[in-house]
Specification:
The complex is a heterotrimer of chains A (about 290), B (about 750) and C (about 150). Chain A has twelve helices and 14 strands. With about 290 residues, chain A is of the alpha+beta class. Classes of the chains: A alpha+beta (about 290), B alpha+beta (about 750), C alpha+beta (about 150).
Chain lengths: ~290, ~750, ~150
């Protein structure tokens, strides 16, 4: 443990208003929710001397409300809390599957959906599901609040489009129509407590003739930010998933991602595994969570 | 016999499960400072200057460097080449240069960011190839720590005459011990006596290492063992260094000093398993009988000698596998690189060379178009077989038995047929395979090692009739305490609970040798049994003992006015055995354990991930003194080996580990391994207590090649290296496809 | 001043609020059962229960815990009077070196409280946040299964 508690300044917010006020006054402060990422860096001695704004006590941001059209998940809802809500598991199974693969039970009990998003890791486990559910992220500052499409949140590795005085308040999950096919797959360094090498989430709707009504497919750990396969999604729209269409879609995958070699995996492996998963999904061989 | 063969509870168990067992960092040592190490950060060079940031409160710290060492600047082991603190010369990136102690941990850690070493870099050597080619000479005259050769018959002639010759090269990587308790030691002075306590395997190694550093006689150094959170070899020699560091700071500070590594430092700076490259050239008959084995072994020792010569020794002695071959020629070299020294890790050289021979059988099987099982059956050692050193196997040989028991349990032919059907179905999402490996493992120290050690252990009885085991052998989770107490209890015909075990403390227990090499049960257990029998004879001087009251009365009589009586036994080599350690001829080990393992797995066609479906292993341990402990050793060792085979990847750059965290160096979780199916075979050894011949290391030897063989069966690709990561499988399968 | 409940006792802590729960337990309250194995939330040796949920105490500044209910391995029983899970670990070889054991026991206790299925897969999932390097997990899984089935 190389963190030095005495060097730290801890600000503790008691309410949402309090949190936003403290945020406005201390734009350099690091927001702290579950601490599952921040404290790892602190333990390594990388955050000594910093000011931390603890928002974990803000009850309003912990709520999970499930309605007919969608669910509103407070930014501070933990992965474990989402897994405990049968209505969320039933409505957004790809998301809860991802929540169940974040770290181990201890990390799931502490890590929050909002913290996960704010942290903006390229390997964020919940991001591919949030991308295909087309979640909307509500961010607030003392001046008011605004809503961002999930696709607008990330600007790079560990970077978001949030302004320095903003905090994530909640995540809205629109309720999807029942898909014909859905998939979540995490390919990690081992069976549990793994960092992902590649990750996929997919939703597919077919029209009455059996052609593709809509395809949404997202990959994680394949680019600085989570990526929707926009080109492939567009290319298959309205077409039957025959050999030719599938080949085309799989070929287009690479143009929407930019995987790299690092200590966890290789560019080629990531690409090939993602292509295989995508092909398996389109061919109907790989589905489920 | 009442205890031996029963699952006696571990003596220290209640404290461990209650959370009150005292590991080194759990001791609240009044007035202790916390010590940290300033490390070189460059792989090779010369220290020009040390700069201390004037903004840091150095006046609150104690800083020690090589000049503060009162005796020799050396970490005593085999070569005496490693300094306690670098004195000018840097040979690897995590060489300790300075030590800093402060009453507050966080401040001590913070100090590291306020010291800067000015180093003139030199050209480093990172690979075994470059080291052998003497790209630069960084150790001795030729970068070679040790060369060993073994010759049996005329290998060159036999190879030239052989109808079939198969060649192959196999390599295995570093492996991190990854004990969950990081290294930690504390030190202080009591008058002129240096006291060192901590997480360690070998109290007398530390005892011996501290004497030259502090120019103290043996009686002025005391080493105490704490409850130790795993070792696996990683705490065999490194505590010599860390103990020296804590003691040096304590000397200078005139206060106790604790040094506890965090995970980062532990992974960056402490020893790993030696990587190895092993080349085989094998001559065979057309039906697969061995005619000649030519083997070349190179191991990477890192920057200093540490234990490399003996790791190499065990490696070469296992290189031919448990097979008999009329002509053998093996050369083994351990070389220096500018990386942190490699050291002991469960198996100690044997897993490296056994992986090579077992994979080579797979290659031979492919060349001869035979089942590798048949080849193993045809060549495995049996009673009367002559090993490469000329050792004749006279007893307790179980190669065939462990092989057949494993094959039967896993249903070899039936499973293979089922896999063939499965793999023929293109719709199946996976490819399945079944693989097998067979190994032997020499019990106890190699060659004359036990003679040099001159181990001593014993028992004490007090006037109240209480019996204590006296040995420097440590409990680090492997079950030594309960096993040794069981042996003594049975020798004395006492209930298990009547025997306690003294805490290893060099002031209180004799030197029973290091807790390594699968020797504790066989060697130390044997000494204890003899000592206990001597005690029994003495107690029975007044007639046969009937019941606890009689035992108590006899003990009182025996002690007389003394508070206790001690009975010690010294090691003697078994009659009729000898080893020439110049020429590597003779009885390299008193006896061998044997193990076979079958692995059934599947490879995901989409993601190339490997899922272990079934692991079956039969292991001959001579006698399972405590069957639960033995099974725990076999399962635990097997899972370490499965991790080495499939997950654990030490990535190095510029001589430094790039993934020194448990997040990035991944060891198996409960979800990564199946329920390991263990068959314990008991083929007794006449010189082991109750027939026992050790179990600690053997489980590490066998699953690695079995995994690789199963992957060959599943994919058709012979993987000649570890770890076999999904990335490597993808590369192999994609290039297979392209071809 | 931070007030919390530790193993059923009311405690208060007046030090720096950024001190980790693990250090507060070990240093201020002298409860050294919880161990530090990695400081990165990976090994689980520091696991404790907060309001019944298992967490890594090395990742939590104590300032986040006003009013929280903390339970450590020490709450499960003492060496003299072991709890059911602890006894099972002793009987079935669930502890070898013992350094992961407190965290394992805490994770197992959390699992027990949420139904405690004795199916192998469920047990492995419950213990997946705790690394053990000695046992290969087999005897740990058997220990937890024995304790949980003994309950019925």
């Amino acid at each position: 443990m190389r963190g030095d508690a005495a060097s730290m300044t801890l600000l503790r917010a008691k309410s949402a208003a309090d949190a936003l006020r403290l945020r406005a006054r201390n734009p350099a402060a690091l927001p702290l929710a579950g601490g599952t990422d921040l404290m790892v860096h602190w333990n390594a001695g990388l955050l000594n001397g910093r000011t931390v704004l603890d928002i974990s006590a803000v009850k309003d941001w912990r709520r999970i409300k499930v309605g007919k059209d969608g669910a509103e998940v407070g930014a501070l809802a933990t992965h474990a809390a989402l897994l405990r809500q049968p209505a969320v598991v039933a409505g957004w199974p790809l998301l809860t599957a991802a929540c169940g693969l974040v770290g181990g039970p201890q990390i799931q009990a502490r890590g929050t959906l909002g913290g996960n998003i704010a942290n903006a890791s390229p390997a964020g486990d919940t991001f591919p599901p949030l991308a295909v559910y087309e979640a909307r992220v509500r961010v607030a500052s003392s001046a008011g609040s605004r809503e961002l499409a999930f696709s607008e949140v990330f600007t790079g590795v560990k970077k978001t489009s949030l302004k320095p005085d903003e905090l994530i308040e909640s995540i809205y999950l629109p309720r999807p129509a029942k898909p014909a096919r859905q998939l979540f797959r995490k390919v990690g360094t081992r069976a549990a407590q793994a960092i992902s090498k590649t990750m996929a989430a997919g939703l597919l709707w077919l029209d009455k003739k059996g052609a593709v009504g809509e395809l949404r497919f997202a990959l994680g750990s394949m680019a600085p930010t989570v990526r929707r396969l926009r080109k492939a999604e567009q290319a298959v729209r309205g077409r039957k998933l025959d050999r030719e269409t599938i080949d085309l879609a799989v070929k287009l995958l690479a143009s929407d991602v930019s995987p790299i070699d690092d200590i966890r995996s290789t560019r080629l492996y990531r690409l090939r595994a993602a292509e295989n998963i995508f092909r398996g999904f389109l061919e109907g061989r790989l589905e489920g969570v | 016999m009442r205890s031996v063969g029963a699952n006696a509870r571990r003596k220290e168990g209640p404290e461990k499960v209650g959370g009150t067992a005292q590991y080194i960092d759990d001791y609240d040592i009044p007035g202790a400072l916390f010590g940290v190490s300033v490390r070189s950060q460059v792989p090779a060079g010369r220290i020009k200057a040390v700069h201390f940031d004037p903004a840091f409160p150095w006046q609150e710290c104690v800083v020690a460097d090589a000049r503060d060492i009162p005796g020799q600047n050396v970490v005593r082991l085999l070569g005496d080449d490693q300094p306690l603190l670098a004195d000018g010369v840097i040979r690897h990136p995590f060489e300790p240069v300075l030590l800093v102690a402060h009453p507050d941990r966080a401040t001590a850690w913070r100090a590291l960011k306020h010291v800067r070493l000015e180093v003139e870099p030199e050209e480093p050597v990172f690979t075994m190839e470059d080291s052998l080619a003497k790209k630069r000479v960084i150790w001795g005259e030729d970068n070679v720590f040790k060369t060993i050769t073994i010759k049996k018959g005329d290998c060159a002639a036999a190879l030239a005459a052989a109808p079939v010759v198969v060649e192959g090269t196999y390599s295995v990587p570093h492996q991190e011990q990854a004990y969950i308790e990081n290294q930690g030691m504390a030190a202080w002075f009591e008058g002129e006596t240096l006291v060192v306590m901590g997480s360690l395997q070998c109290p007398y190694y530390v005892h011996k290492a501290l004497q030259p550093i502090f120019a103290l006689p043996p009686e002025k150094v005391r080493v105490l063992h704490c409850v130790t959170g795993g070792g696996f070899g990683g705490k065999e020699e490194y505590p010599n260094m860390l103990g020296g560091h804590a003691a040096l700071l304590a000397l200078k500070a005139k206060r106790p000093v604790k040094m506890i590594y965090d995970r980062l430092e532990d992974m960056l700076a402490t020893t790993k398993r030696h990587p190895a490259v092993v080349r085989h050239r094998t001559g065979l008959t057309k039906d697969g009988r061995l005619l000649a084995q030519e083997i070349d072994i190179v191991m990477d020792g890192g920057a200093y000698m540490t234990l490399s010569p003996v790791v190499l020794s065990r490696g070469i002695l296992h290189a031919t596998g448990p097979y008999e071959c009329p002509a053998v020629s093996v050369t083994a070299r351990a070389v220096a690189t500018n990386t942190p020294p490699n050291g002991a890790f469960r198996g100690f050289g044997a897993p490296q060379t056994l992986f090579a021979i077992e994979m080579h059988w797979e290659k031979i099987a492919a060349v001869l178009k035979k089942d590798s099982l048949e080849l193993r059956r045809a060549n495995a050692v049996k009673i009367g077989s002559v090993l490469a050193t000329g050792q004749v196997l006279k007893e307790s040989v179980s190669a065939a038995e462990v092989l057949e028991k494993t094959v039967k349990r896993v249903g070899w032919d039936k499973t293979k047929k089922a896999h063939a059907r499965w793999n023929a179905d293109a719709k199946k999402p996976t490819l399945r395979g079944l693989g097998l490996a067979l190994v032997h493992h020499g019990a106890g120290f190699t060659g004359n090692g036990e003679d040099y050690l001159k181990s001593r252990a014993g028992v004490a009885v007090d006037r109240a009739g209480r019996v204590r085991v006296l040995a420097g052998s440590t409990e680090m989770g492997q079950g030594a305490t309960s096993t040794l107490a069981q042996i003594v209890a049975d020798a004395l015909e006492l209930p298990y609970d009547a025997v306690s075990v003294e805490r290893p403390d060099t002031a209180k227990v004799p030197d029973s040798g290091p807790t390594v090499a699968s020797r504790t049960t066989m060697v130390v257990g044997g000494l204890l049994r003899r000592a206990a029998l001597d005690l029994k004879t003495a107690l029975e001087a007044g007639g046969k003992l009937r019941g606890p009251a009689a035992f108590k009365a006899a003990a009182k009589r025996l002690c007389g006015t003394a508070p206790e009586r001690r009975f010690l036994a010294d090691y003697h080599r078994a009659a009729g055995s000898s080893f020439d350690d110049k020429n590597y001829v003779g009885d390299a080990y008193g006896c061998y354990g044997y193990a076979a393992c079958a692995v059934e797995l599947e490879v995901d066609k989409a993601t190339y991930e490997v899922k272990l479906l079934r692991v079956v292993t039969a292991q001959d341990v001579g006698k399972a003194v405590n069957p639960g402990v033995v099974e725990g050793q076999i399962v635990g060792g097997s899972v370490q080996a499965l991790g080495w085979a499939l997950l654990e990847n030490c990535v190095y750059k510029d001589g430094a580990l790039q993934n020194p965290r448990l997040t990035d160096y991944v060891i198996p979780t409960a979800l990564d391994v199946p329920d390991i199916d263990v068959i314990v075979v008991e083929n007794p050894y006449s010189n082991g207590p109750f027939g026992a011949k050790g179990v600690g290391e053997m489980p590490m030897d066998v699953p690695g090649p079995a995994v690789a063989a199963a992957l060959l069966a599943a994919t058709g690709v012979l993987f000649t290296f570890l770890p076999i990561l999904p990335e490597r499988i993808q590369e192999a399968l994609c290039s297979q496809e392209a071809a | 001043m931070i007030r919390l409940s530790v193993n059923g006792k009311r405690r208060s802590y007046a030090g720096h609020p950024f001190k980790r729960l693990l250090d507060v337990l070990r240093e201020d309250f002298r409860l050294t059962g919880s161990k530090e194995g990695c400081g990165e939330g990976e090994c689980g040796a520091c696991s404790v229960l907060i309001d019944g949920e298992p967490v890594n105490s090395c990742l939590i500044p104590v300032g986040q815990l006003e009013g929280a209910k903390i339970e450590t391995v020490e709450s499960l029983g003492t060496p003299e009077k072991l709890g059911r899970l602890q006894k099972a670990f002793l009987e079935h070889g669930g502890a070898q070196c013992g350094i992961c054991t407190p965290g394992m026991l805490v994770a197992a206790e959390a699992h027990r409280r949420c139904g405690g299925s004795t199916k192998r897969q469920a047990l492995c999932r419950a213990l997946a946040g705790n690394l053990c390097r000695c046992t290969g997990y087999k005897h740990i899984i058997e220990s937890v299964a024995a304790a949980l089935s003994g309950k019925r």
